[in-house]
Structures are given as structure tokens and as C-alpha cells.
């Protein structure tokens, strides 16, 4: 089952990711059923044509309610997925061996969906409940990474449910300096992120972030090259594997950073260098940090680790993404492609990793 869409602000990006996987997966080897989750949370039988889910001419794809709803297995001895159509009894669709959950953001990438699949005793691609939850919450993630001896940048958290007064804003600026990056703590795809160069703009940036998440994280701007590294879980108990790193270069001055538009709607304004032009020793350091971050959070299957590399070669972890963008143009598959693992092989490897691990506690 290729599962995508969902209730988060990254719904459309999840659909585009699914389009890439549906195009790449070997239909001679796998029987594929596409299931979309609408923004209202309905699970529906979806079109498995990859072209239905591409971003084209600025149009973002969307899962719509088809009135053919999907039910997961109802017990640990049950592998059958069923469909329910209006006015009809549930009908068997087939047994599902593994789910590829291509959801980004809350209600999909944050452990909630993973918990549902665990309850149904269904194997799935990617990290489990705890690692997914930690990877989604930038606050908890930084605490775990720092607690494991990895370097993270300075930050402050503005908790949900608390008004932020002028004194708090002043303390944030005094602690972190300017410029600042203000982010929803539990969102991705650069949604709700603002760069703040003037302290007077900080309240508006916090308000923009809280449109996506009541919990906000404020980070000090880090000086360095923005480098990413893909990680794949190891087979048969082997250590995780790291790709060659890639680098994001924002070339269009309309973008102050790698924001949503630069990622998905203005490809001409960004250069994705794969592999990144780094000395061999720095490449090895980035790969080591990426694997250590993967293991610190307890990831499984896959993750993309984003770091900053300073001029002196020091590597600072920015964040870890447990279900990175997976379109053919996304950094995660690009980095593995230049490492020697093409898109179709990468999809096959991830399914194999999911089938290899047991269900339940592990």
C-alpha cells in the first residue's frame, strides 16, 4: 500500500512524493494499491497513475473523497484490507504485506500514523512511533541530539498556550542575536518559517509560525554551508549507511532562504549540488554525523539529516527528517543516485527493510 496525502499543510507535497514512488516501483514485482488520506482524514482508494500526483504549472495535487473508503486489518491475525462504498457492505481488497507511508508533517510523519499501523500489526516503511515523534518535534529532536553528544545550534522554545510579551521577545534576541529563524516546532517543507533581521519583526514571525503549530522554536542563524545527507537502515542488523552529501544553493535573491516556494515552485531559483563539493575528510565527517543522528533518534529505514558545515569544517546538526521528500527531484533520492543507488532500487530497498523487520516491540 502506497499511502499519502493527510491532514497536514504538507498534503500536496505528500501527493507529489507518492507520484514519484508510484512511477518508480516495480509493478512486475509488487502489486500496488494507492490509498490517499483527504485533508478531512478520510482514507480513500486512489488513482495509482503517477501523472495524477505531479506538481504541474504551479498546481498542487490533492486527494479528494472518492466515496470508496479503505479499512485497515481489524486484528493481528488479519492481513486483509477492505473497501466500503456508499450503501454497500465492506468488500475485501486484498492482503497487504507492507505500507509505504509517504506522509509529511503532523498526523502522518509524527508517530500518529505509525501507532495506528502498529495497532493493526502491519509492517511499514520508515521509523517507528518514538523516532517519528522525536524527528517531527524540532525541540525534542535537538534535546535528543545534544544529549547524544552531537552539536546543535542555539535555540529558544516558545511553548503552546502562552502569550509572548515584550520582555520575552527581548530576551530571545539578547540570547540568540540577529538574524533569527522562527519556525513551527512540528512542521516541515519550510511552512511558516521566517527569517528575522529586525527585532521589531519577531512578533509577526511568531504569529506566522503559530498558524501551523502553537509551539514555536526560534533558532540563531548559523554561518556555514547548508549540507544534507541521506541515511538508509542496514540490512540484517548491519549499521546504517550514509549517502554522499548534497548542498542547497539558493541563487534567486527573492528567497531569503530555502523556503516552500524555492523548494517546490521555483526550481530555477535553486541549485541542488549532488554530490556537494567538499573535501574528502569533511564528507566523511558529515556522513558520520548523519549516521550518529539517525541512531540517536532511533530511526529505522530512512532519514535525511540536514547540517551546517562551518569554514573550519565543524558540523552542526540542523534537523533530521524521518520521511524526506521523495519526488525524483528531491535531495534524498538524488543523493542516493549519485552514491550508486537509483530511484527504483532505493524504493525496493526501503520495502525490503520494512519486510525484514518484525512487527511489535523490537
TrEMBL record:
The keyword Secreted does not apply. Keywords: ATP-binding, Cell shape, Cell wall biogenesis/degradation, Cytoplasm, Ligase, Magnesium, Manganese, Metal-binding, Nucleotide-binding, Peptidoglycan synthesis. PROSITE patterns: ATP_GRASP, DALA_DALA_LIGASE_1, DALA_DALA_LIGASE_2. The keyword DNA-binding does not apply. It comes from the Bacteria. Pathway: Cell wall biogenesis; peptidoglycan biosynthesis. GO terms for molecular function: ligase activity. Pfam families: Dala_Dala_lig_C, Dala_Dala_lig_N. NCBIfam families: D_ala_D_alaTIGR, PRK01966.1-4. This is D-alanine--D-alanine ligase. The lineage of its organism: Bacteria, Bacillati, Actinomycetota, Actinomycetes, Micrococcales.
